[in-house]
Amino acid sequence: TRNQKKVLESLDITSSGKIQQSFDASSLDAFTEEEQGWILAYQNRLKRGSREHSGAITTFQDSTYVYEFTDFSASGGQFSPMAETSFEGSISEITADFVLESSSNSTWASDLAFIVTTSPTFSSGSAVLQVGGYTEIAQNNYSWGTGDSGTPGTSIQVTVTLDEPVSGGNLYLWIGNGWASGGSQATWSGSFSIPGIEDVPNLITGISPASGRIEPGFSEEITVEFSSIDFVPGIYERTLLLQTNDPDQQQTFFPVTVTVLDENGSLSDFASTLTVSDANEQSVNLTFGTAPNATSGFDEQYDVVAPDPPSNGTMDARFSTTEGGYLSYFQRTTDDRTEWVIAITAESNAYPITLSWDPAELTEDGFFRLYGPENGVSLNADMSSVSTLVVNDPSISLLTLEHVMTASYEMTYTENWNLVALPLQKEHQQFSEIFPTAYPFALYSFDGNYQAESRLEMSKGYWIRLTEAYQQTFSGNLPQHQPVELRKGWNLFSANSYCEPYCTIDDPDGIVSQGAIFEFDAGYSQTSQLHSGNGYWVRTNNAGSVSLALAAPSLQDADLLAGTWSGEKFQNMLDEQAVRIHAEQNGRLLQPLFIAYQNRVDGLESRFALPPVPPTGSVDLRLENNTYVSSQTEVTLQIQQNEEPILLSLEDGFEGVITFYSETLEPVEYILRGNAKIEVPQGAVRAALTLTDGSGIDTLEGSPTGLIPEQFSLSQNFPNPFNPTTQIAYTLPEDAKVQIGVYNMLGQQVATLQDGFLKAGAYTVTLDGSSLSSGIYFYRFSAKSSGASANAFEMVRKMTLMK
To answer: Which class in CATH covers the domain with range 713-801?
Structure first.
């Protein structure tokens, strides 16, 4: 125990050398009998690092178990344990380096066998792995692949990698002669190296007598010694084996259950103190925890009953149960959820009430949350990340403290494209195992460009396309929130682990851009509330890491929430200083656009940027340059449609003219007036909108602004990435010969989009990539005017086809 270790340290014998020195000097008499027992147990513990037995030395080197043997001799089918203890972990490979010293009866070097069993006794029934040896003993057999010779000096130096790892908590290792032939005998020297395992400390440290003879009609008392060194408090099960020469009862197994307590005689998993204090400097300490032997009622070794509440208005706090109130309350260990209800009684002048704790006292397993009414909408704290919660509202008298070990999420996904993520770890080889209704090759991550993926990872967000709506349940253990690494610019990420009622981004370095967190539900919309199982876009000013935190009232009331403006304040600011363009589809509001923004600030486009365009088949509406706010009264809209209609309207009290452009149809012009809604024509990919004063509308002809373009220009294709079609817009300030070609990464031309003379104006061409393979392409635009000035313009842009 810890107390014993302190005594050993005070005796200055905590190194193996000093212990050995004590033995050599026969100075144990200086210690009490109890202390001598501790010294012997501690010596056994130190020997675990390097043991010598049966001509072998075993050590651990860089988390690898190394077994070195010299002149190991065994007859056919004879095996010896490689260690006195069992091992735990996962064996995925074994490295052998040994030589055959001597041999008889055709025993080869490769007949030296390494065996793993799940029982402390050697048998083929418990053997789960065999490497080497001609005779098959275990369920899974591997050969060394070399050394098939009985000539002394034949050596084997090889690493054997297993098809499937062998894992477990009680693995026993054996070495022996795997040529089970009569008269077979051989001797080997060398070593085995097995990474990924560690030995399990001995709970049973001695049996006396370990062997002997019992005469008929007599009995023998056996003494079994136990040591709790290297064991944390808990309940452990072991098995004693009695072997006799009685043909009717050769083996008898005795199950043993050992309970290891801490220095206070308890078996708690953890114990933490929660201090409740008021504005008048009065406080109450509450203790909570779990233990495998705790009950739902009063447990003398753990619980403390609270006295009757004070009647003089003094602040009171206690754990409230159906049995009564407690100052200390422990509950039974569970792998699901444990809840404590905290009742607070105080006068209104005693507020605010502060609850404080030490996160280091909490167990690392699971998730701790302290919250108020309505599942934490008004009060919520991740107890592993923060150490206080302040209650300002005198009407709140009950709080809930929960320890959650597992969770289950029922996720619903819609047909077509979804932003998804893993809320919990779920083993899979292909994403179709989680999303069986997904299209093949339809999972994409983002690292500056869209990347096709075969499986999902925690903390990452993904686009996935489904053939139909689908529900999936994720269940499992809750990991702690892990930092999320973000690159500069746009990132697809997710809220991992536990987010109740939702999470926010903790951004101490301020790398997240204001207003730059977006979710997707038919279209993009800003958010500051992150939910497990969904993917999100976030934009950063610099690369770095952020963390997730449970929603807290101190953040909810702030102007800035998780690096973005709080929704109501932000929308009010834009509504006061800009003109809103409303967009909706099937009654669902899409991300609004704002024009004529009066607050002229530097970096306007960067500050109000939208995430990359979603894949083809999704709805997207944005201003030119990928923003949703502009200071201009004449703007260009970029449009991506699906088969469902999009309705547009202007903010009440404003008017404008909007002209829609498509590849196949003539321009279509509408008047936007107040809240009157118009339907975006099917096939429209761009629109030009001009605000007017309402006194009259000029008819627009030709280019979107009604004027001849002032310069040559080539726009980025839209959408990008695309599948299978995309539009490319360009302008000509004068008549010119235009050539537009598409090239692959090898510089080979794969398509011609335009080759001929055109009049001055604005144009859009469409690339159909149905016959092209997924990848990166370049489109080259060249224009040479035919006028006296003979101006020339050339430009190349990159685009991505994502099937």
So the answer is: mainly beta
3-state secondary structure of 601: coil
Residues with Cβ within 8 Å of 215's Cβ and at least 6 positions away in sequence, in order, are: none
To which residue do tokens 């022996």 refer? Answer: 176
Supply φ then ψ for residue 489, to 5 degrees.
105, -150
Other beta carbons within 10 Å of 782: 18
- Structure-token pair, residue 653: 């009290």
Q: Check: CB of residue 115 under 8 Å from CB of residue 137.
A: yes
* Residue 36 exposed, middle or buried by CB count within 10 Å (0-12, 13-18, 19+): middle
Tell me the pairing of strands 678-679 and 647-650.
antiparallel
Answer whether 329's CB lies under 8 Å from 285's CB.
no
First to last CA, the chain: 63
**Could you report the per-residue pLDDT of 416-435, keeping only the tens digit for each?**
899 999 988 888 889 999 99
- Looking up tokens 């602004």 gives 705
Condensed to tens digits (0 to 9), the pLDDT of residues 575-613 reads 677 889 999 888 788 888 998 877 654 455 566 888 998
How many angstroms separate the CA atoms of 416 and 642, rounded? 10
Over residues 552-569, the mean pLDDT reads 38
Residue pair 667/687 in contact (Cβ under 8 Å)? The answer is no
Was domain 52-199 assigned CATH 2.60.40? Answer: no
Residue (of 740, 743, 749) closest to 782 by Cα position? 740
Q: Could you read off the pLDDT of 318-373 as tens digits, one per residue?
A: 999 998 999 999 999 888 899 999 999 998 889 999 999 999 999 888 889 999 88
> What six digits make up the tokens of 486?
């973000």
Burial 68-103 (b: 16+ CB within 10 A, else e): bbeebebbbbebbbbbebbbebebbebbbebbbbeb
> 369 with 383: CB under 8 angstroms?
yes
- The half-sphere exposure of 603 on its side-chain side, counting CA atoms within 13 A, is 5
pLDDT grade, residue 443 (50/70/90)? very high
CB 104 within 8 A of CB 96: no
Can you tell me whether residue 489 is helix, strand or coil? Answer: strand
Cis, peptide link before residue 721, omega less than 30° from 0: yes
Q: How far from the centroid of its chain's Cα atoms is residue 280's Cα?
A: 43
Between the CA of residue 767 and those of 238, 527, 663, 720, what are the distances in Å?
Answer: 71, 34, 10, 12
Spatial distance between the Cα atoms of 72 and 185, rounded to a whole number of angstroms: 11
d(CA 763, CA 728): 8
E-strand ranges in 641-768 read 647-650, 655-662, 668-673, 678-679, 684-692, 713-714, 725-732, 736-743, 749-758, 761-768
pTM of full prediction above 0.85: no
> How far apart (Å, rounded) are the C-alpha atoms in residues 422 and 535?
9
725's tokens: 């079609």
Residue 203 to residue 4: CA distance in whole angstroms: 16
**Using CA atoms, how far apart are residues 368 and 147, in angstroms rounded to an integer?**
57
Q: How much is the pLDDT for 603?
A: 53
Phi-psi region of 196 (alpha: psi -120 to 50; beta: other; left: phi over 0): left
d(CA 367, CA 425): 15
Pair of tokens at residue 491: 């990132």
pLDDT averaged over the chain? 82
d(CA 102, CA 154): 10
Distances (CA, A) of 774 to 248, 427, 437: 73, 28, 22
pLDDT at 567: 44
Tell me the C-alpha distance between 547 and 560, whole Å. 16
